[in-house]
What does this fold into?
Amino acid sequence: MLTRQLTSFVLTAALSGLMVSGLSNCGSKGSAASETTDTTTAVSASEGENTASAPDPTKIPAGKVADAATILSRPQVPVLCYHQIRDWKASDSKSARDYIIPTQAFTDQMQMLADSGYHPILPDQLYAYMTTGAALPSKPVLLTFDDGDLDQYTTALPILDKHKFKASFYIMTVAIGRRGKQHYMDKAQIKDLSDRGHTIGAHTWDHQNVKKLTTPEQWKTQLEEPREKLEAITGKPVRYFAFPFGLWNKQALPEIQKRGYVGAFTLASGRDEQYPLLTIRRIIAGGQWSAKTLYRNMTESFDGK
It folds into this structure.
């Protein structure tokens, strides 16, 4: 208990520095293009709803869930990872700006997805597709947001609403309601996201690298308690997890599975041959990417793979 109190005290002073510093271990394999002024262009068009009803993965009979080899053989769905959505400040470093999407850039990126015929889906839909081959809308994409920054609610949400896009938000529970140098969503805002059809997932208690977790108490603090807290806030099961820094090892995967998560998201690293559902690939949407650059990197990273 004393350790956690001391950790919380240190985090109060240093948490925003960790997030804004660029999360240097969160690199993706997408090209770090510096374009910011390209005109947003539509690549193709299709009609239809942006999201379909999400099936409950717990109701899929075990006998209907494909084996790991079959799951790995299915074409990957593009998964995008976002952090802060706000305009850059003079104090933001070059590395920090790679993880901070200016408001207009995010607006352009969402417009590009809409104009290009992409349909954002939710994690339950992705799970059903991966495990059973369930149909997805044309040109599916999964939008994910890490950490629980307040600007995801105040800035990104209205832009998502404009396009009727749904997303998943992975919350670092130690920071819920914090209003220091870095502001984070409070319980009411997290519940509102859930009530409006977005998915809430866990991102550990205090952004710990899971490769460093070894004891039952650490797993409880970083995996069990965040899930329980978020379930109490939303009134819904929390089934999905995002790895801080995108880092994982084989030892962590059964621990995550044992604690009730059916899917987990990494970054651009390869998937595990035994646990593909717990190593779903994402790429970070670069803060200095134009909409055109995002489209190119997204298609190059996922199409036909």
Remarks:
- DSSP finds ten helices and ten strands in the chain.
- Residues 2-20 form the longest helix (19 residues).
- Residues 5-52 have pLDDT under 50 and may be disordered.
- The beta strands are 79-82, 84-85, 100-101, 119-121, 140-147, 168-171, 199-202, 240-242, 263-265, 283-284.
